[in-house]
Amino acid sequence: MKKLTLILTLIIGIILTSCTNSEFQGEWKGTYTGKADKGYWSATIDENGVISGKAESPFSKLTFELTGKVNDNGIFTAVYGNPAHKGYYNGKFTKDTVIGTWSNPKMNFSGKINGAKK
Hints:
Blueprint: H1 2-18, E1 26-34, E2 39-45, E3 50-57, E4 62-70, E5 75-80, E6 87-93, E7 97-104, E8 109-117
């Protein structure tokens, strides 16, 4: 019985370890650019790949909450804003950089994003 308990504990530990500790975990910051708006963003990625941060627009003088998820391959999707200014970030993280696109369909704004790990 002790042997079975030890084996099950080891298996559960291995499973939990493999499901956490995103290689993209940490602090990130960058810029977004486009014809109608440009600004700055910063975010934290936790051990599960959950993205939380903010995007700041000097154009509109607003700061928007940024939330999303990055998968094990670095592909991410995130949402920013509020109902009046809701937009999307999509792209790819690498070990030290991130590139992608952003869009705000309601305002017909779009552009590129880039950034780096702090």
